[in-house]
Design a protein that fits this description.
The complex is a heterodimer of chains A (115) and B (113). Chain A is an all-beta fold and 115 residues long. Chain A is built from no helices and twelve strands. The radius of gyration of chain B is 13 Å and the shape is globular. Classes of the chains: A mainly beta (115), B mainly beta (113).
Chain lengths: 115, 113
């Protein structure tokens, strides 16, 4: 069965410092991997995706993620955090061959950026 | 380009009733997926429709059903509501043929009392 693990319920970081939100996955075949962000009482906003190719993926709002096949990880990173980055972040995998239409989500990581 | 639109945004229903939620996908998107989000279970996939056909289904009881119309708009229905059905229901649309990510609506907050 496909699964996604986000080992940290919450990540705290000071504004201006780099941030990392961790994600590991378990899926057979070559997965599609995604990061989404959710603000209070809102839907999910797409940040970035890995399908194939370069292991370092750049996305919206200065976020990037590195795909590591040997460690089955897809950690989200940003060089300099902003207070406005505080939100709930979800890692998701789309197990082949369902494509983008059936996402398996992690439990989410709350990012808190302090001024 | 308009995003994914879900109506209504908020809904309060009584146990035993049924409810219908609506989702209008991004223009040109033919795939619509539905997810349930609860504090206890997180985000769970309900089902996905493409060209009016259910193509993928999650592990939910038969009380949860959906359909898609020829204009790609989708509805989901929950019958015989239970307190545990209280959740944020999210709809997402995508191109359906690969190459595009899923875009989510703002959700419908269903409260069952």
């Amino acid at each position: 069965a496909q699964s996604v693990a986000q080992p940290e319920d919450q990540v705290n970081v000071a504004e201006g410092n780099p941030l990392t939100v961790k994600c590991t996955y378990s899926v057979s075949g070559n997965p599609y991997l995604f990061w989404y962000v959710q603000y209070p009482n809102r839907g999910l906003q797409f940040l970035l995706k890995y399908i194939t190719g370069d292991n370092l993926v750049k996305g919206s709002y200065g976020f990037e993620a590195e795909f590591n096949k040997s460690q089955t990880s897809f950690h989200l990173k940003k060089p300099s955090a902003l207070v406005s980055d505080s939100a709930l972040y979800f890692c998701a995998v789309s197990p082949p061959p369902t494509g983008f239409q059936k996402l398996v989500f992690g439990t989410g990581t709350r990012l808190l950026v302090s001024p | 380009k308009a995003g994914v639109t879900q109506t209504p945004r908020y809904l309060i229903k009584t146990r035993g009733q049924q409810v219908t939620l609506s989702c209008s996908p991004i223009s040109g998107h033919r795939s619509v997926s539905w997810y349930q989000q609860t504090p206890g279970q997180g985000l769970q996939f309900l089902f996905e429709y493409f060209s009016e056909t259910q193509r993928n289904k999650g592990n939910f009881p038969g009380r949860f059903s959906g359909r898609q119309f020829s204009n790609s708009r989708s509805e989901m229905n929950v019958s015989t509501l239970e307190l545990g059905d209280s959740a944020l229901y999210l709809c997402a649309s995508s191109g359906g043929q690969g190459g595009t990510e899923a875009f989510f609506g703002q959700g419908t907050r269903l409260t069952v009392v």
